[in-house]
Amino acid sequence: MEIAFKASPLKMKAPIVNFVNRIKKLGKDDPRRIVHSFKVALAITLVSMVYYLRPLYKGMGEAGIWAILTVVVVFEYTAGATLCKGMNRGLATLLAGALGLGAEYLASLFGPKVEPIVLGCFVFLLVAAATFSRFIPHIKRRYDYGVLIFILTFSLVAVSGYRVDKIIELAHQRLSTIILGGATCIIISICVCPVWAGEDLHNLIVSNLEKLASFLDGFGGEIFDLPLDGDSADISNEQDKSSLAAYKSVLNSKATEESLANFAWWEPGHGKFGFSHPWKQYLKIGVVTRQCAYHIEALNGYLDPKFQGSSEFRKIVQEPCMKMSSEAGKALKELAVSIKSFSYPCNFAMHIQSCTTAVNEVNTTLQASMVGEWEVLEIIPIITVISILIDIIKCVETIFLAIEELSEQAHFKKSLNENEKPQLLHGDERQDKGFVTVIIHNMASASPAMKDSRG
């Protein structure tokens, strides 16, 4: 019994230590979370003074609880999200309260017997119309919370007004406390260590581009350093593996990007982000970045030693393939730096030209070699890798076009080399046709010889 009693504290200590370590890590990953917690506490403390201070309590009455409830439901992590909820709640409450009082007045004109029926019809029609409006994409995206508050407030005013005599006084007190709570949230969110959704969206797009660039930088060395004996030996250290796997988060970034862009729309101008900053263009960049990430996901499958292919054929195309991968990674890094520094990607043309040169080198190398000398199953993995790399280069060019459009809309810093437009591979099908034609032609020309040798 004594041993079990001594062991039980040790068993309880481990989960507690793990929990504390997770909390510490959560704070270290983003210290703004700690600041946000204190900001919410400050806002609730301030609006609680409505109850603590007698002069304020006499003016607001028991409706002061609505100020606290407003802070709890409105205060969000970013300033844009707080503004979105605060403005939605305030305007919806004002509109619903006015319509509720109007409905109450119109219903009273029909007499006490018909009044509840008329009120029921008003509630039915307006609630049905408001609920249906939530299916409209634009309203769903920006005003969904406001519509919910409208339905709640209108129903409360219409129903309670039938039994409460001083309905106007009650509506005034609730509206005043809701405005007080919402204004407190907005002021603290913007003025005290603000967290801007637009800035987070900007940094997220930059981070996604850097993750893709990191993968492409290390891919060439990984695939051409695969063990040729097919064993499962480690091919890189843990740091390299984590950098190669970082791109996976890009695949699931759509919801976060759309949410941040929506909240950024509500934010006032701040820093380098003007009031009419083109947040929609960031979503376009995010779309083409994810397309590139999907190609990289396909490319990542060929890091498996099972798909290493012929060692001799790999050596033939190794140099241009590694060049394609590394230069595409450098081009993405240049684009990331361009967005981060609000400047035109002036060095992009140099890297994309190197990619185009590498594609031409692959075609030349394949034309000089006899592809048909190898078994089809041995060369298909490497041929597929080359094809995917060409698609990735085209995606990088598409990302460049989207960022170029952003630079014009957001007035990025101009450079002397801006007029030097890169010669893009995107849209030029001759590269793909040349690559495919070389493979088919060489294999077809080798087929009779292979048949003769077998005969």
Radius of gyration from CA coordinates: 32 Å
The biggest sheet amounts to:
none
What is the mean pLDDT? 80
Poorly predicted regions are 228-236, 446-455
Q: Report the β-strand fraction as a percent range.
A: under 5%
Which of globular, elongated, flat, extended, rod-shaped describes the shape? elongated
* Number of strand segments: 0
**SSE string:** HHHHHHHHHHHHHHHHHH
Q: How many angstroms separate the termini?
A: 84 Å
Helices, by number, come to 18
Give the helix proportion (percent range): over 70%
Structural class, from secondary structure content? mainly alpha
Q: What structural keywords apply?
A:
455 residues; mainly alpha; 18 helices; 77% helix; 0% strand; elongated; disordered C terminus
Structural features, described:
By secondary structure, the chain is mainly α. The chain is 77% helix and 0% strand. Helix 2 (32-52) crosses helix 3 (54-60) and helix 5 crosses helix 13 (254-266). The longest helix is centred in the last third of the chain and has 34 residues, at 376-409. 33% of the residues are buried.
Architecture blueprint of SSEs:
Blueprint: H1 2-29, H2 32-52, H3 54-60, H4 65-74, H5 79-108, H6 115-133, H7 137-142, H8 144-163, H9 167-191, H10 197-223, H11 238-245, H12 248-251, H13 254-266, H14 279-300, H15 311-341, H16 348-368, H17 376-409, H18 429-454
